[in-house]
UniProtKB/TrEMBL annotation:
Pfam families: DUF4440. This is Nuclear transport factor 2 family protein. The keyword Zinc does not apply. It comes from Bowmanella yangjiangensis. Keywords: Signal.
Length: 146
Protein backbone atom coordinates (compact mmCIF):
# COMPACT_ATOMS: atom_id res chain seq x y z
CA UNK A 1 0.00 0.00 0.00
CA UNK A 2 2.82 2.38 0.90
CA UNK A 3 4.38 1.77 -2.54
CA UNK A 4 1.06 2.55 -4.23
CA UNK A 5 0.77 5.87 -2.35
CA UNK A 6 4.30 6.82 -3.45
CA UNK A 7 3.50 5.84 -7.05
CA UNK A 8 0.30 7.90 -7.08
CA UNK A 9 2.13 10.83 -5.49
CA UNK A 10 4.89 10.65 -8.10
CA UNK A 11 2.30 10.48 -10.89
CA UNK A 12 0.50 13.54 -9.53
CA UNK A 13 3.78 15.43 -9.27
CA UNK A 14 4.66 14.58 -12.89
CA UNK A 15 1.20 15.68 -14.03
CA UNK A 16 1.56 18.98 -12.17
CA UNK A 17 4.99 19.54 -13.70
CA UNK A 18 3.64 18.78 -17.19
CA UNK A 19 0.72 21.19 -16.67
CA UNK A 20 3.12 23.89 -15.51
CA UNK A 21 5.37 23.35 -18.53
CA UNK A 22 2.32 23.48 -20.80
CA UNK A 23 1.18 26.74 -19.21
CA UNK A 24 4.65 28.25 -19.66
CA UNK A 25 4.67 27.08 -23.27
CA UNK A 26 1.27 28.68 -23.94
CA UNK A 27 2.38 31.92 -22.28
CA UNK A 28 5.53 31.92 -24.42
CA UNK A 29 3.40 31.40 -27.54
CA UNK A 30 1.21 34.35 -26.62
CA UNK A 31 4.23 36.54 -25.86
CA UNK A 32 5.79 35.64 -29.22
CA UNK A 33 2.51 36.35 -31.01
CA UNK A 34 2.20 39.74 -29.29
CA UNK A 35 5.78 40.72 -30.16
CA UNK A 36 5.30 39.70 -33.80
CA UNK A 37 2.09 41.67 -33.88
CA UNK A 38 3.78 44.78 -32.47
CA UNK A 39 6.53 44.51 -35.09
CA UNK A 40 3.87 44.19 -37.79
CA UNK A 41 1.82 47.06 -36.40
CA UNK A 42 4.82 49.35 -36.83
CA UNK A 43 4.60 48.84 -40.61
CA UNK A 44 0.81 48.38 -40.95
CA UNK A 45 1.26 44.69 -41.79
CA UNK A 46 -2.28 43.77 -42.84
CA UNK A 47 -1.58 40.02 -42.81
CA UNK A 48 -0.31 40.22 -39.22
CA UNK A 49 -3.40 42.18 -38.17
CA UNK A 50 -5.61 39.59 -39.86
CA UNK A 51 -3.78 36.81 -37.99
CA UNK A 52 -3.87 38.55 -34.59
CA UNK A 53 -7.52 39.65 -34.41
CA UNK A 54 -10.43 37.21 -34.24
CA UNK A 55 -13.31 37.70 -36.68
CA UNK A 56 -15.65 38.54 -33.77
CA UNK A 57 -13.26 41.09 -32.22
CA UNK A 58 -14.56 43.88 -29.99
CA UNK A 59 -11.96 46.67 -29.88
CA UNK A 60 -12.23 49.73 -27.66
CA UNK A 61 -9.71 52.34 -28.78
CA UNK A 62 -7.88 54.86 -26.65
CA UNK A 63 -10.16 57.53 -28.13
CA UNK A 64 -13.23 55.73 -26.76
CA UNK A 65 -14.48 54.30 -30.04
CA UNK A 66 -15.65 50.70 -30.23
CA UNK A 67 -15.50 48.65 -33.43
CA UNK A 68 -14.89 45.17 -34.81
CA UNK A 69 -12.32 43.49 -37.00
CA UNK A 70 -13.95 44.49 -40.30
CA UNK A 71 -13.75 48.20 -39.43
CA UNK A 72 -10.21 47.83 -38.12
CA UNK A 73 -9.06 46.05 -41.29
CA UNK A 74 -10.80 48.61 -43.51
CA UNK A 75 -9.02 51.44 -41.68
CA UNK A 76 -5.66 49.74 -42.32
CA UNK A 77 -6.36 49.30 -46.01
CA UNK A 78 -7.30 52.97 -46.38
CA UNK A 79 -4.50 54.25 -44.13
CA UNK A 80 -2.07 56.72 -45.66
CA UNK A 81 1.46 55.61 -46.38
CA UNK A 82 3.58 55.57 -43.25
CA UNK A 83 5.76 58.60 -42.71
CA UNK A 84 9.52 58.41 -42.80
CA UNK A 85 9.55 58.77 -39.01
CA UNK A 86 9.17 55.16 -37.97
CA UNK A 87 7.29 54.24 -34.82
CA UNK A 88 8.35 51.15 -32.91
CA UNK A 89 6.13 49.40 -30.40
CA UNK A 90 7.05 47.36 -27.38
CA UNK A 91 5.25 45.79 -24.44
CA UNK A 92 6.39 46.48 -20.88
CA UNK A 93 5.13 44.81 -17.71
CA UNK A 94 3.42 42.02 -19.67
CA UNK A 95 1.17 39.83 -17.56
CA UNK A 96 -0.43 36.72 -19.07
CA UNK A 97 -3.11 34.79 -17.18
CA UNK A 98 -4.22 31.48 -18.67
CA UNK A 99 -7.59 29.79 -18.19
CA UNK A 100 -7.47 26.68 -20.40
CA UNK A 101 -8.24 28.00 -23.92
CA UNK A 102 -8.67 31.62 -22.79
CA UNK A 103 -5.91 34.06 -21.92
CA UNK A 104 -6.08 37.55 -20.46
CA UNK A 105 -3.12 39.82 -21.07
CA UNK A 106 -2.26 43.23 -19.68
CA UNK A 107 0.73 45.38 -20.50
CA UNK A 108 1.98 48.91 -21.06
CA UNK A 109 2.36 49.60 -24.76
CA UNK A 110 5.19 51.96 -25.64
CA UNK A 111 5.07 53.68 -29.02
CA UNK A 112 8.36 55.37 -29.76
CA UNK A 113 9.67 57.60 -32.54
CA UNK A 114 12.91 59.54 -32.71
CA UNK A 115 11.14 62.51 -31.11
CA UNK A 116 8.65 61.16 -28.58
CA UNK A 117 7.18 58.28 -26.63
CA UNK A 118 3.52 57.49 -26.09
CA UNK A 119 2.21 55.07 -23.47
CA UNK A 120 -0.99 53.06 -23.44
CA UNK A 121 -2.40 50.62 -20.94
CA UNK A 122 -3.65 47.67 -22.96
CA UNK A 123 -5.61 44.61 -22.01
CA UNK A 124 -6.83 41.83 -24.20
CA UNK A 125 -8.64 38.55 -24.12
CA UNK A 126 -7.43 35.79 -26.41
CA UNK A 127 -9.17 32.53 -27.25
CA UNK A 128 -7.42 29.45 -28.60
CA UNK A 129 -9.22 27.83 -31.55
CA UNK A 130 -7.68 25.29 -33.92
CA UNK A 131 -4.42 25.60 -31.97
CA UNK A 132 -4.14 29.36 -32.66
CA UNK A 133 -4.51 32.22 -30.20
CA UNK A 134 -6.59 35.16 -31.46
CA UNK A 135 -7.74 38.35 -29.75
CA UNK A 136 -11.51 38.60 -29.19
CA UNK A 137 -11.50 41.69 -26.98
CA UNK A 138 -9.07 44.62 -26.69
CA UNK A 139 -8.97 47.78 -24.61
CA UNK A 140 -6.45 50.59 -25.04
CA UNK A 141 -6.15 53.57 -22.70
CA UNK A 142 -3.79 56.45 -23.49
CA UNK A 143 -1.53 57.41 -20.58
CA UNK A 144 -0.03 60.79 -19.85
CA UNK A 145 3.63 61.19 -20.70
CA UNK A 146 5.94 59.88 -18.01
Amino acid sequence: MKGLVKLVGAALLLMAMAASASTESEADSIKTLLNRFLEGAAVNDIEMHDRFWADDLVYTSSSGKRFGKAALMASLESAPTLSEEKTTYSAEDLNIRLFEDVAVITFKLVGETDNERHYYLNSGTLVKNDNEWRVVNWQATHMQQE
